[in-house]
Amino acid sequence: MKKWKLAGTFMAGMAVVGIASITSAYAADIIGLITKTEGNPYFVKMRQGAQAEAQKLGITLKSYAGKFDGDNDSQVAAIEDLIAQGAKGFAIVPSDSSAIVPTIEKARKAGLMVIDLDTPTDPITAVDATYATDNRKAGLLIGEWAKGTLGDKAKDAKIAFLDLATNQPTVDYLRDQGFMQGFGIDVKDPNKYGDETDPRICGHEMTGGAEDGGRTAMETLLQKCPDINVMYNINEPAAAGGYEALKAAGKDDGSVLVVAIDGGCPGVKNVQAGIIGATSQQYPLKMAVDALDAIEQYAKTGQKPTMPASGFIDTGAQLVTDKPVSGVPSISTAEGLKLCWG
Amino acid sequence: MSDDASGSSLAEKGLQGQDQTVASFEEQGRNGIRRVQHFLHEYPTAIPFLVLVFGVLVFAGVAGHRFYAPFNLSLVLQQVTIIATLGIAETLVILTAGIDLSVGAIMILSSIVMGRFAVVYGVPIAIAFPLGLLTGIVCGLINGLLVAVVKLPSFIVTLGTWSVYGALVIYVSDSETVRSQDIQNIAPMLQWTGNIIKIGGGAVITLGAVLMIAVALAIWYLLNWTAFGRHIYAAGDDPESARLAGINTRNTLIGVYTLAGFICALAGWIIIGRIGAASPLAGQDANLDAITAVVIGGTSLFGGRGSILGTILGALIVGVFRNGLALAGLDSLWQEFTVGILIIVAVTIDQWIRKISA
Questions:
Q1: What is the model's pTM?
Q2: From the list A40, A220, A241, which residue is nearest B323 (CB)?
Q3: With CB atoms 3.0 to 4.6 Å apart as the test, which of A15, B40, B147, B296 could cross-link to B346 if both were Cys?
């Protein structure tokens, strides 16, 4: 019995704390942030950036994430939560670009301002504003850089593609096809990889965007084509893993050109160390901060940001390299390190 | 005396021409297939072994010298080392008719603790490394206590701790990878498992693979030659009988999960050697891959039957098929497809073999 009493007191205590925190939350404007998963540093950094900005603005940030990439149900539940709590608005990185639209419409009808981040909704007009990064352009930059660096040798290149996943999510094919376009490969269907016939392509292997996947993928491709001299990577962790495979094969002498996308701090450091030749840096923190500022602006003045003709505000991508190529704009790793996102 | 003897021989004479077989079980229909079934029941690792040989022969034919090269075959061993190590831990748990979904998360948490404490917090490696191993042991112990003492189903327990340990990975790592070059400069001992031994003909073996084989031998010995090992089989086969026979099944279970946690921590060390870095992103599907290796290796999900050798073969089969299919130029989706088929075939065979004892 004593045990239960103790438990009861504890529960009551928790309830008081809970109520206290809820009431204090009502004092400030509530703004939501919904990302894809907590497992991906890209989104974790986005949340941490938003948290810092929220503190600066004096608003309450409620953050939510799906259980896995593609988890629409959790995001729907998060939006319903935010409507119920009377939030002023929220920013969302949609896991499913079209399935989330009806729920977003419900929120907008309830008076919430909705900003889409990173991955545009389908249609893009379903939200009040979109802050996105152009993944195809990010791929294009590293493709042009690789082509420029190789010069005449580009026509005899042998390229390994370390991609994300078999089901080719949007970011996966946009980056991959962007690279091919930049390098001068006929991409056939620009929204799908694997249908190309260019003999310079050794093959596509999946990495899951992580180091262990990157190493295994590159080992396999090196077995298939020992003469690989360009390694394209979906992101920097995959590139770090792929580099370990190069090291094990004794090809870490700079004979293989390594390119990646993301612009995380460990990735930029790897560019500085010469492990990655060039990376396209994106700005998830900027996206989240801009979105929060826009929603707070709306809460105070009722003003919404005006969208450019493209339908979204491009938060940009910059090429980071210490070996610039003429005709391809880039920044140095020193600058890249100042802008990197953890 | 002589009378008696003649009397009995007389009696035997009376049996002449009669059926003289002693009482026995009927052995009807013990034809070819039945015999195979019995053979497999006695030697369950024969199937994964044959599948592996079959795979190697097929891919040697399809992908040619590239597949068959000693270096490539040793590469497959390197590629399956982590999953095989986790598979050993998983085998222990599955032998008790349980399942451990948290093995991958424990591995990554241990590797992050080692890497982060040694490199980011500047803790001496002599402390950071044991701390990483201890992390695995504690995680396993928590699983074991929840299963054996609180008596929750292992699936539920480890479904929960998978999330908990996964969240701790993000918390401890701050979602940041400890870079390969930083580990190399500050705590090179963590990358020891990635060192290579050349074994001739172009084949290379990593110290991580050597460690995995050492763990396999140790656990094989434990399972077959110690009381604790036999208790694991008994507790998995029929926990009630095991208890009545005087086995402390509770302590056996706690021991199994804790040992599994320790092995996962060793896998954490091996993965640092393989990818160079300590990454919170790595090993996302490792738990399911480990279960796949165990199942394809012929260990029964219903407990009490299976072996470490089977699991190592199971991991090798998955590695050989993935590598072979990729070298043959097939799309990666067909690798997934084939592994799926292998799982279903393995469990079908397991069910079929079980009918003997039923």
A1: 0.78
A2: A220
A3: B296
